[in-house]
Each structure stands twice: as structure tokens, then as C-alpha cells.
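W.,

You were right to be curious about this one. When I first looked at the sequence I had no strong expectations either way, so I just let the prediction run and decided to look at it fresh. Below is the sequence, 504 residues in total, followed by the output.
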Amino acid sequence: MSWFSIKKRLSLPTENKTETVTIAEAIEDCLNSSDFEHRMIVTTYKNVWVSYYTTLIDSNKLHDDVIEKIQGHQFHSPEDLRTFIPLSESVLTSDGKIVADSLMRGYVCIHLEEESNLCLLIAIQTDDNREITIPEVEFSVIGPKESFVEGIDTNINLIRKRIPIPDLKVKEYTVGSLSRTRVCVIYIDSIANEENVNTMIQRVSAIQFDQINDSSYITQMIEDQTNSPFPQFIDTERPDRVAALLAEGKVVVAVDGSPQVITGPTTLVEFFSAFEDYFLSWHIATAFRLIRLFAVWFSIFATPLYVAVLTYHAEIIPQDLLATLIVSRSQIPFPPILEALFLELTIELLREAGARLPTKVGQTIGIVGGIVIGTAAVEAGLTSNVLLIIVALAALASFTTPVYRMGNTIRLIRFPYIFASQLWGLVGLAILFNFMLVHLLTITSLGRPYLAPLYPTRLSDFKDAFFRMPFNLQSKRPIHLQTKNNVRFEKQKAKKKKDIDEGI
């Protein structure tokens, strides 16, 4: 029997054919693709048409669980086929749009030759996801060694293993007119603020774009202030961190094809807190957080302060240090701004070269290139050895930022401060800092203040902001999240219990 006669049988009678897609039309649109298979299986009972994309389905499942079952059982309708095919994910439909979408997601379409107005869709997609490995960006010496992969179902499984409660809700949406990417909004219904959840769902479902390749696309489209260089969501590859943030009352967005998960709302302080802090004692974790905050300030202001002091405020330099600076700059023909820009741009070039090259080659280029270029620049009289040390320390300090996106922001904002220090000295630094502070005050994340708990001031939230206090003192969730249930545990029950022999 020709395909045209089959198409005629599959066509559904409708009043308006322009709005309805028949099963025949859905299959016909796929026939021009070389990896699409549309063939008839002849059985002793009825002839069956099977349609699928060979590159999207598991051929072993197709042969063992579908074709062999069709050839070995008696059936009279698609409902009969559904009863003896041992695959749970199946759908009976007569909608051509559903058929077309399902075929592109690894389903096989089965319909009988006589019964053309109904077909059976069975999911036998191939599982070619990357295996779960250790985190590469957020690596920690202590703690779990699992990271997200590109498969969204696997990622949701990793989250559910850590929060096995019915209150963990997953809302799935399809984003992208071409990519048809699966995007899931995840939250704990009894904890998360309903306004935060609805805002996230509204922004995700309202995205109008043709192709979504990674969660970074989503991040840029749902941020409150898209023109700000400061990230307003934290993306993480650690399932344990996502589970902890969900327990705090935050909302999570997972994107199919991306090993990074978006979490929000977030605050500026959270970008300088590593999740490994919770695996260490609170004394050590607090010390490390303070070191990171100092490193960030040093990375931003070290080079601008050098330029400002040497250009306008040489009188504030101690005499012992002034002699060293004079000797180091005696052979330099350029003003401080030019030698600072030269070294800063050199550092950025080495970073980009190391990031774009293979791992072993990139490490070699970064180390050898930095040593050779730095030494040659000082010997050639292009820059002073004092500034070389300052720029190298500032670059090293910028690497202490746990979140990669915030590290890029710190790399960027150093340059406006350098130019401001050249124009107005320390006054320029103060003016630009005030502008940045005003900008940070206007930023929100899902409508929540970005500078919390500094502004608005929430003293109770300081227990897990700049400091990481003991767990028994963190009995309540962050106030700025305005969760439904603000209590984590009853503080009285968390007190230290006596040993067995002490109770006698």
C-alpha cells in the first residue's frame, strides 16, 4: 500500500484543516529527514506502521520491547498494544501536534493500518547523558563529590535524593521556538515565598527566544536589571548546595542540556560564600569568608590606589617607602596610569589564553608567560617592580571569589576605578564608589533587596552572611526571603543533651 493511501486514511475530518494537524501531516513533515524511519510491520493479525527518529531512540528497546511484542501478541486496537508493551511512558493520541513534538523527543509512533485516527506514542529515547562526576568549578576537599550533568531528569533526581518530600514541587515549561528546551522551576511549597515562586514562573514562561542552549541564557533574560554587571542569580553545579538553598526557601531553575542550575533570590554577600564553609568548623569558615572579602576589596582598589597616590597624593607615602618607589620608577618613561593599564591588560590576556587553551597547555602558558613577560617588562623599563607585585597580588586575590560570574564582574570594574583615580585621585575613587553603592542599592533579585542583610539591616541574618556562626544559632531562615515557614528547628530542642551516664 502506498504512503499516499495511508495518508488519506490517517487524515482526520475537521472543519478547519488549517488549524488542525493530522497524524499523517505530522509524519509527512518528518519524511524528508534521512534519520527518520517510517515502515510497516506485517503481522498475522494486523499491519502496523512504526515511525521514529533513529538518532533519538534506543534501538535495543525498539527491537526487544516493541517490535517483538507486536509480532508475538494478538491485538485489535492501539489500546491492546498498550497493554502488553512493557514500557510505562506511553500516550494514546489523535493530535498531530503531539505526535510531531513527541517524535522529536525520542518517542516511537505506532498506529494500525485500519485504525488511522488514533496512535500510540511510546518513549524509548536513548540515554546518552554524561556520567555524574566531581564538580569542576566548585570543587571542595570536604563534602559530596557529585555534580549536575546535562540531563535535566538526572539533575532533578539528584535534588530529590537530598529532599525526599512531597512538598518539593517541579513545574516544567518549554522555552525556545526552535530548541523547545525543557525548563523546570523547583521549590519547596511549604517554605518558599509564593510571590518569589510566581515571579520566577512568570519570567520563565514569558521568555520569547528561538534557542536556549544553556541556563546562562535564562539567567540573562530573567534578571531584574539586565544592564547591571553584577549577577543577580547564583548558578551552581552542586546538588548539595541546591538542596540547602531550597531548604532556605529559594527558587531553583533547571535547564535541560545545562550542568548549571540557577538559584534565587540572592544577595551580594552570598557570592563570596563557598559551600565548603558549611563543612568546616564555624571558626575556620568565618576566617575564610573574611579573607575572601578582604581579597575582593584588595583586588578592586590596589591598582587604582597606586595610580591615585603616585599621581596626586605622593605626600601620604612614608619616607622609607617613598625611596623604594622612586628607585623602582626612575627608569620608567610612562605615567602610572599607562604602566598600570599595560600590566592589567597583560594579566587579562594571560587569563584568556589560559582559559581557551587545553588544560595542561593553558597552565603552562599562564605560569611561564606571567614570569617571562613580567620579568622582561621590568628589565625593559616598561613598568616598576612594585606595581608588578601589586597587580599580581590583585589578580591572585580575584581568584578567591567562589562564584565565577562575580569574579568576572570584579575583573571588569577595576578598570573604571583605574581611570577615575587618574582623573581625580582619591576623590575620584570616592565618587565612583558612591555611584557603585547607589547602583547596588537599586538592584533587586526577584524583587528582593540585593544588599540584604546590610540594607535593609537584618541583624539576625548576619549569622550566615559575613560570618558563619554555629548551626545551633541558625534556628531561623533568612528574613529577607520572607518564607512561609521561618523556623528551621526549635531552638530549645537543639540544646546539647547529656550523655547517658550524666543523666543519672
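Here's what jumped out at me. The CA atoms of residues 354 and 362 lie 4 Å apart. And, maybe more interesting for your project: The chain has three domains: 3-123, 152-266, 278-449.

Coffee later to discuss?

I.
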